[in-house]
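Anyone able to model this chain together with 5'-O-[(L-methionyl)-sulphamoyl]adenosine?
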Amino acid sequence: MKTFYATTPIYYVNDLPHIGHIYTTVVTDVLTRYHRLVGEKTRYLTGTDEHGQNIERAAAAQGIAPIELANQVVARYHELWRTFDIAHDDFIRTTEPRHRRGVEEIVRRIEASGDLYLDRHEGWYCASCEAFYTEKELVDGKCPVHEKPAAWQSEENVFFRLSKYAKPLLETYRTRPDFVRPENRRAEVMSFVEAGLKDISVSRTNVKWGVPFPGRPGHVVYVWLDALSNYVTALGFGSEDDALYREFWLNAEGRRVHLIGKDILRFHAVYWPAFLLSAGLPLPTSVWAHGWWLRDAKKMSKSVGNVVRPDALVRDFGPDALRYFLMREMAFGQDASFSDQAFLERYNADLANDLGNTVSRISALCRQAFGTSPPEPCEENEIIAAWGRARQDYRTAMDDFAFHRGLETIWRFLSEINGYVVSREPWKVLKDEGRSGRVSRILYAASEGVRLAAGLLWPFMPSTSRKIFALLGAAPEDPKLADLEWGRLPTGAAIAPAEALFPRVDTAAYFAAKEESAMTDTPAAPESDGRISIQDFQRVQLVTGRVVEAERVPKSNKLVRLQVDLGSERRQVVAGIAAQYEPEALVGRNVVIVANLKPAKLMGVESDGMVLAATVGEAGEPSLLEVAADVPPGSTVK
Ligand code: MSP
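re: yes, here you go
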């Protein structure tokens, strides 16, 4: 049987979800619902990536165990996916025993292929990616994704013979053009592999929070090998009951699609298939990479500090409006910018006007004319032909992952229905002829058109689609494309008074209210004696750092630009201490840094953190807070 298995990446639990994570999850939801609509048996997997150094560190900064941090963030993910009507069938956490068993089995199989060996590993390491880069890949010594300085790292690791798989991988890209999508990403991956593949390290000894590496005491499995395995461990690979694995992964007629952001393409299109080939498991059918949501021309991310959290928009406009915006505004595969302004424009134009008004006008006319839906079904060639085109174009777009075009098709059809109603003027006919057959015919064709449009809309906006069905007196279940045939609208069903699906928003008033609440929103008041709780204090992440470079900020008397080694990364921090300290005298000092401060620009120079100093005397002259020379950089201060 034809099956369809779709996955999102599993999300790190050191960050709360933002628009970027929601996008990948909504796209996968739309895609899986679409395959359900066309009648396939589907399975949708999402989950969380809970091991590794970043999580270990984020938890330590809050003074809690990694699993506690994971539990808190996972609860937030569950809540959010419920809010967004995400219909996933499973949610895997990499800390679950079923996952660990599967990872161990994959590692054992890779080992059995003779693809693992022990060696010393040295290289430039980006702690945020948890990955090594070659000198050439760095941009000005910084990680190309996070734009943070990479740190030199050296340790004994288990290596995987990735080099052995360059040929079979290239063969796969060549013979299966759908393996990496869209086309520009496929070309990118091919040229990366054509340039030659180096073996990669797949274990860590400096990290404790992970799956112990089978047969290699002291090592844990590299977080990416651990994480990627989720796509099969969640199906029961490596456990006694592997029925789902057989149904969705081994099935020759099944499709297996990974949806990801372009930043994690290499892991999915190169490493993952190589691991699978080595372990003797089938490959996924496709890896589809989407672009980034940008804000101020930069990728939205926690480390840049420019993320949009969905809470206010969902509260004010409902989940479907945001689902619509994300799917309509971004051409799948390309980058797009997020702004409240663009969101509100689309909300008013596309949702309040095109969709909401069309639906409420037609249902109100039916109610006015008959008190119910129209009495008689009819054939109306103009709308039937428009429907035939819409259905065809929709399928083509959706099969090509061009979701924005899928939506355009629905909107074109709605506008055709609208044009039909306006040109037939049923309100006039009603006045002239009363409840005539002609009125019934126009309203039937329009209502039936809207019902069919609501069917196509279901993958994108499930609750709106159901509301429209209900409003027309049609059964509000999960629709199937096969049932979206002309003439199935039940006639004579009671029609409820039309509620506005998307009430129009006064954009200027919305922004004014938002500004006002931002001004009056004060942070939670401290206890009356001014004391804060330990949890409040733990929100500030303090770590030790060693100054490795220092220079004056040009044209400033006060500011020095410091490069500070925080153990796993280097940070640029600007400090107002130039009047008291010569830059040369700062190098080598062990200082204390606020590591989770939002980055800021001082005299045009980016500062990613803050150096602590005591302020002395009336003038508040800074005196650096220093720690003993033998305290390693990156130690937590609490
Ligand atoms: N844990 C890894 C994935 C392991 S999959 C075996 C990871 N997690 S993540 O939480 O950092 O990111 C998950 C997904 O969110 C990625 O697909 C990433 O591209 C996406 N997004 C995060 N920020 C984004 C934007 N600003 N825009 C669009 N998507 C981006 O990577």
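The chain has 21 helices and 26 strands.
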